[in-house]
Amino acid sequence: MDILYLLVPLSVVLVFFIIGGIWWAIHKGQFDDIEQEGERILKD
Fold it and tell me: pTM of the entire structure?
């Protein structure tokens, strides 16, 4: 039961890091034009 006092806060911090990473990627334009990258691979 004592391990929950460690694991619950760590999992909450991990979720915040994941949400922050997704937010950063969206606002930096990582997902603006997904189709162009797929076409670029086929044209090479």
Answer: 0.66
Identify the sign of the CA torsion 14, 32, 28, 26.
negative
Which residues, at least 6 apart from 31, have a Cβ–Cβ distance to it below 8 Å? 25
CA distance 14 to 36: 32
Write out the two tokens for 40. Answer: 């670029």
Decide if 25 contacts 31 (C-beta within 8 A): yes
- For the segment 8-18, the average pLDDT, to the nearest whole number, is 98
29 φ/ψ sector (left φ>0, alpha ψ -120 to 50, else beta): left
Q: How far apart are the first and last CA of the chain?
A: 56
